[in-house]
Write a structure and sequence with these properties.
By secondary structure, the chain is an alpha/beta fold. It has nine helices and 15 strands. The protein has three domains: about 80 residues; about 160 residues, Nucleotidyltransferase, domain 5, CATH 3.30.420.590; about 100 residues, 2-Layer Sandwich (Alpha-Beta Plaits), CATH 3.30.70. The relative contact order is 0.08.
Length: about 400
């Protein structure tokens, strides 16, 4: 049995109505509108993976690519920076080496110049010192100096080493006590007072040798006059009381006149700086060289501690003649040569005087030979700094006549 039309299922139109609808679309406002907008055909797009897993894989891959790109960029930049740094280092090293080389060359040049200048200065200083200590220069300086010898006529003898500076109108003097120990030519280290027993010339030689100041003239006075001069700081009237001298009458009169004219404030008579040494019941005095050096430098312009240009000699008696070493010492000292010691040789049969050179200063040996008038020079270097020459006095040496 057929069901009526109104009993048709909801949502299903009858065939004939569907056909009508398809044939005659309804009009809206007198205008035909399509139910949907017509679609514009597009080019087919590639099918991309979709979903959670595909998007995560895409994200990891992108990050990895970005990390690799960043890493590569950083490596490139680092390589460039390292290259720049190495180039800078190499450039610095290059210029540093050049600077060091140049600095080393400059330092070497400066050292060479300094060495040359120092060598030249030493040569000139030594040459000047040798000239200042030549026999002629020593004799010239000795003209201003007089050794005043004060004796009581018995056992005690004191000395006053005096410089008369007539250009400046001043008088300087160093008082040397009887008990001062010095090298006495021909006697060794003795009390200076004992040197007078062998003569005034021995005393002058000993004091000249110690002070490095030449004394070739002397006067002898009594002890009281000597003490008064030191107390009053004046030599006025002293030369009127001279009992013995090797000065000529004219020289004595000239010095006496000058000494009487000098005011006391222009006179300085000071004791030799000494250190007392008691040996039993005897008192000896050790000169203090540093303080003595100050006086000599101020008053005589002499550097006591300096041996520059001064020939130092040790004298041996090789002839057997008593006192011959002391006589040779006096001759040398008068010429500005310093006698370090005198003693006996190993034997007394040396016929020829031997001048044994201990260093390479042949000029010093020639000077000694010239002063003595005899001698055979023998070079025998020795590792010591006490003396420049060892002199063995032979039988050919004769004491020069005054």
């Amino acid at each position: 049995m057929s069901r009526p039309a109104h009993h048709a299922k909801k949502g299903h139109a009858a065939p004939e109505r569907l056909a009508e609808s398809a044939a005659e679309p309804p009009a809206r406002g007198g205008t035909d509108y399509p139910r949907r907008r017509s679609h514009v055909d597009k080019e087919p797009q590639p099918v991309l993976a979709t979903g959670y897993r595909s998007s995560r894989r895409s994200s990891k891959s992108g990050k990895k690519q970005r990390r690799e790109a960043t890493s590569e960029r950083v490596k490139t930049e680092m390589a460039e920076k390292v290259g720049d740094a190495w180039r800078a280092v190499l450039t610095g090293v290059k210029y540093g080496v050049l600077a060091v080389a140049g600095g080393a060359a400059l330092v070497g040049l400066l050292l060479a110049l300094a060495t040359g200048i120092n060598a030249g200065a030493r040569y000139l200083a030594k040459r000047e010192a040798v000239q200042q200590n030549s026999p002629e220069a020593v004799a010239q300086r000795a003209r201003d100096n007089v050794l005043v010898i004060a004796t009581d006529g018995k056992t005690s003898t004191d000395f006053l080493a005096v410089r008369f500076d007539q250009k400046s109108g001043q008088i300087y003097g160093i008082a040397i006590p009887d008990g001062a120990f010095m090298e006495v030519p021909g006697q060794g280290f003795e009390r200076i007072g004992d040197s007078y027993k062998a003569g005034a010339d021995v005393s002058m030689a000993a004091i000249s040798n110690y002070l490095s100041v030449p004394f070739e003239k002397h006067v002898v006075i009594d002890k009281q006059t000597y003490q008064d001069a030191l107390t009053n700081q004046s030599l006025a009237g002293v030369f009127a009381r001279v009992t013995e001298t090797d000065l000529s009458a004219d020289e004595l009169a000239r010095l006496s006149e000058f000494a009487d004219s000098v005011d006391t404030d222009q006179v300085a008579l000071v004791p030799l700086p000494v250190k007392p040494i008691n040996l039993g019941d005897q008192t000896y005095y050790e000169p203090q060289r540093e303080q003595v050096a100050d006086l000599l430098l101020t008053w005589w312009g002499v550097k006591l501690a300096s041996d520059e240009g001064i020939v130092r000699v040790i004298i041996y008696n090789g002839s057997g003649v008593p006192g011959i070493a002391g006589e040779a010492a006096k001759v040398l000292i008068k010429s500005g040569i310093r006698v370090v010691d005198t003693k006996n040789a190993d034997r007394f049969d040396y016929k020829e005087t031997m001048i044994v050179l201990q260093n390479d200063d042949t000029q010093a040996a020639e000077t000694v030979k010239t002063v003595l008038g005899v001698g055979k020079i023998v070079e025998q270097p020795a590792d010591q700094d006490v003396a420049d020459i060892i002199l063995i006095v032979g039988q050919d040496f004769k004491v020069p006549k005054e």
